[in-house]
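An instance follows:
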Amino acid sequence: MGNFTKWLGAGLGFTFGGPIGAAIGFAIGSFVDGFSEDDLKQERIDYERQRNSGKSRGGNNTQSGDFEMSLLVLASIVIKSDGKIDEKELDFVRNQFVNMYGKQRANSAFKLFNGIVKKDISARQVCIQIRQHMPHASRLQLIHFLFGIAKADGFVTESEVEEIRKIAGYLYINDKDYISIKAMFYDESDNAYKILEISKSVTDAEVKKAYRKMVKKYHPDKLQDLGEEHLKGANEKFQRIQEAYDRIKKERGM
C-alpha cells in the first residue's frame, strides 16, 4: 500500500485536497481496510516535506497526476449519468489510460477508478477545484476525453450530453468551444463549420481566419506542461481541426 500512495504523492498537486482528494481517499479506502482520507493527507504532507527539503523534484501547481485524477473523477460522473455503467465505456477508459500511461500506471489508475465510480460526487464542486488550478487548454482536453468516453458504446445518450454540457459550464468553457468539441464526435453535414466555430455563410477569408485561430487555441504545445503522455489526445483534437478545414476548402474549391 505504501508504494501505491507514494505513486500518488509523486504525481499529484492540487488534487490531493478538496472534493477530488476526498474521492481518491474514498476509492483507496474501498480496497484497503482501515485507510482513511487523513492517511492520504499525511502522504501529501510527507511528499511536501521531501520536496521542500530537496529530496523530491519540484513541480508546478498542476501536475500530470492532477490531470489524470481529474479525468478519473469526471469520467466516473459521465459514465453514471445514464443510470448504468457500460462495460464498453469502462473498456474505453482503461484503454485510454494504458495508451497514455503504460500498463502498470494505468492499472493503478483504473483500480482507483473502480472505487471512485462507487461514490456520489458533486460535478460542480469538482469543477470548481479544477478550474482554480488548471489552464483553459487543459480543461478543453478534459471535455474532449469525456465525449470519447460517452461515444465508446457507439452512441451518446442525451443524459451524457447534458452531463458533459454541465461540466463544461462549470469549467468555464463557453458554448462555442463546447459545440466545437462535441462536433468532433458526430458525422453531420455542417460539423466542419461547427468545429471551426463558424457558420456556412462566412467568406473564404473568414474561414482561413477561423482556422488560424483554432490552430492557435488547440495546438498541442499548450499541453506540454502536462507531460508527453497527454499529448496524444491533444494531437487527435488538433487533427480534427485540420480535417474540418480541409473539408471546407474542398467543398468551396478554395
